[in-house]
């Protein structure tokens, strides 16, 4: 099992045995706008007892024209510190879909490695009939969270252009229909298609079906990457629609022992809006 995962049994035992530990269970459920759902409303309707809620929108760059971009370190520090998370706090992330890996990547990118993802998330917790709390959480005491941007984790647009030209190993987590350009990008004004040389590796391949919802094993992930023809001889760049599910690919790369990866933060939402970036559409 990945060192970045915690199982539901283990979390339940920790919560029962160490209620006063410097540990925060963080619900980071989030949905694209056209889903018609609100993560915070879902949290109020049901969550792991003692959990707190973080909104991806609140910890993303409020001034960027591109969605879900990394914020300034000061913004991230303010929002995370307001959740009662300090430098030594153990953070356990969960969600109702596919967002935890993005928060895992963000925390580590800002220098906080004391973080794990609940394997199977909220859906597995519910399926196993575990305790559920309702209502909002009481805001905790503010903590000092020392966010410092770590190097070697993020790719920006200018470098991404060069990487595409150089034939770098690029994997795209979007669905096949989105990647191929046969379905809209999901964002108004954003062109369809994919980057030249990118390999479509849909994020959903890395989760077991209901009622488990767990990440697949490292052995299975290795088979998936190999089956897609991903070159693991060097650095891999992950991308997707807006930088969220690209984190799942990175999470699984680390699970198979390949830490040489970076995430293109702007992803297709940025690339697709540039007039001069090459875009491909697969013929029907």
CATH topology of the largest domain: Oxidized Rhodanese, domain 1
Q: Which structural category do the helix and sheet elements fall into?
A: alpha/beta
The CATH superfamily of the largest domain turns out to be Rhodanese-like domain
The beta-strand count equals 10
**DSSP strand content:** 5-15%
Order of helices and strands: EHEHEHEHEHEHEHEHEHEH
Dominant shape: globular
Low-confidence stretches at least 5 residues in length (pLDDT < 50)? none
Question: Describe it for me?
Answer:
The protein is of the alpha/beta class. It folds into two domains: 5-127, Oxidized Rhodanese, domain 1; 154-271, Rhodanese-like domain (Oxidized Rhodanese, domain 1). 29% of the residues lie in helices and 12% in strands. The protein is built from ten helices and ten strands. The chain has helices at residues 8-17, 39-45, 73-81, 100-109, 121-127, 157-165, 176-180, 218-228, 246-255, 267-271, and strands at residues 5-6, 23-27, 52-53, 90-94, 115-118, 154-155, 169-172, 199-200, 236-239, 261-264. It has a five-stranded parallel β-sheet with strand order 1-5-4-2-3. Strands 6-10-9-7-8 form a five-stranded parallel β-sheet. Strand 2, helix 2 and strand 3 (52-53) form a beta-alpha-beta unit. Helix 4 (100-109) crosses helix 9. The longest helix is centred in the last third of the chain and has 11 residues, at 218-228. The chain is globular. It starts with a strand and ends in a 13-residue tail after the last helix. The model has no long low-confidence stretch (mean pLDDT 96).
């Amino acid at each position: 099992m990945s060192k970045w995962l915690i199982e539901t049994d283990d979390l339940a035992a920790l919560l029962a045995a160490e209620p006063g530990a410097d540990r925060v269970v963080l619900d980071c459920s989030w949905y694209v706008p056209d889903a018609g759902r609100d993560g915070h409303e879902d949290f109020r309707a049901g969550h792991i007892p003692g959990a707190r809620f973080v909104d991806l929108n609140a910890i993303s760059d409020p001034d960027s024209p591109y969605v879900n971009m990394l914020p300034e370190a000061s913004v991230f520090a303010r929002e995370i510190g307001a959740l009662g998370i300090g430098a030594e706090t153990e953070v356990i992330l969960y969600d109702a879909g596919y967002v935890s890996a993005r928060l895992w990547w963000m925390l580590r990118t800002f220098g906080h490695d004391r973080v794990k993802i609940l394997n199977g998330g909220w859906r597995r917790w519910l399926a196993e009939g575990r305790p559920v709390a309702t209502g909002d959480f009481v805001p905790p005491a503010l903590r000092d969270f020392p966010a410092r941007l770590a190097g070697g984790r993020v790719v920006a647009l200018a470098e991404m252009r060069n990487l595409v030209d150089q034939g770098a190993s690029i994997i795209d987590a979007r669905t096949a229909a989105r990647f191929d350009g046969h379905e809209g990008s999901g964002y108004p004004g954003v062109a369809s298609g994919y980057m030249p040389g990118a390999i479509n590796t849909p994020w959903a391949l890395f989760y077991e079906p209901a009622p488990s919802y767990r990440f697949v094993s490292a052995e299975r992930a290795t088979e998936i990457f190999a089956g897609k023809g991903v070159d693991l001889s060097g650095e891999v760049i992950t991308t997707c629609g807006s930088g969220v599910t690209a984190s799942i690919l990175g999470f699984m790369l680390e699970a198979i022992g390949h830490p040489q990866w970076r995430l293109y933060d702007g992803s297709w939402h940025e690339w697709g809006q540039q007039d001069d970036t090459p875009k491909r559409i697969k013929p029907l």
